[in-house]
Amino acid sequence: MKILLTGTGGQLGQALLDSKPDAVELISTTRQELDLSNAEACRLAVQKYQPDWVLNAGAYTAVDQAESEPELAHAINAGAPEAFAQELDRQGGRLLQVSTDFVFDGQQGSPYRVDQPTTPIGVYGTSKAAGEQAIHRIFGANNPQGVILRTSWVMGPVGRNFARTMLRLHRERDQLSVVADQVGCPSSTLNLATACWTTITQGSQTNLPPIMHWSDAGAASWYDVAVAIGELGHSLGLVDTPAKVNPITTADYPTPASRPNYSLLDCTTTRAALQLDGQHWQEALKQLLLRVQAD
């Protein structure tokens, strides 16, 4: 089975490389090798490699910077999946598009189901939702040829992410202030990569739902995660003395882009479809920190 993977240089891309099934012939591409902002380059890559699947793990993920670069964000997050879908629809092959909890506005107080309409806020969420809509438009809303896997709060042992940043700050500072009124759930790249590969292997044999949700299990605020990183880092010998973490509100920490106050994803149907149990986010975080690389 031939897979064209985008975003190899990112934290999820690295986890996907590390966990590649033996039966997969992988064509991995970095940002330099495949410019996702160039729709024609995306179409030509599908024509050249004729993959069984495109696993589009690459994205424009700079949430705040997207507010000042809307055209680039849309080109990468909406234009690339549209181009992949167009060419796959023409020649055959399937698409696994990694999407985000930011396609929801965070105004409800219960986990978002896979069948709920998207209500994005900000350029980043809007661009990712537009990518989803393009896939539905090209393949058809219920066609398993295009599978969308939404995830949240992605963290891995490599790359730039909240876990590694907090680990560094716990080492450097005595006190930290972290937002406590945004609720969701972390997604370890180690578990997310497993979900992606399982989607492809199972999806090649049977029809999976066209939209799925994946995160680790449980719920947390950013404050909760920051505290846990300090405690786990100390217990693992990665932090001498954890910093005191002070809870603050979103209003106390203004950012260019608005963020959902509540973005917990309902992963029930996905776990059943993939036959994967969800690991609690604290245990997943521990496994992540055990593999983290020094800054």
What fold name stands as the CATH topology? Rossmann fold
Number of helices: 9
Mean pLDDT: 95
Q: In CATH's first tier, which class applies?
A: Alpha Beta
User: What is the count of distinct domains?
Assistant: 1
Question: In terms of per-residue confidence, which ranges show pLDDT below 50 for 5 or more consecutive residues?
Answer: none
Global Rg: 19 Å
Q: What order do the helices and strands follow?
A: EHEHEHEHEEHEEEHEEHEHH
* Order of strands across the main sheet: 2-1-3-4-5-10
Largest β sheet strand count, sense and barrel closure:
6 strands, parallel
Instruction: Give the N-terminus to C-terminus distance in angstroms.
Output: 36 Å
**Which CATH-level-2 architecture?**
3-Layer(aba) Sandwich
Give the CA-based shape: globular
Q: By CATH's scheme, which homologous superfamily applies?
A: NAD(P)-binding Rossmann-like Domain
> Helical percent range?
25-40%
Secondary structure category: alpha/beta
Strand content: 15-25%
Give me the count of strands.
12
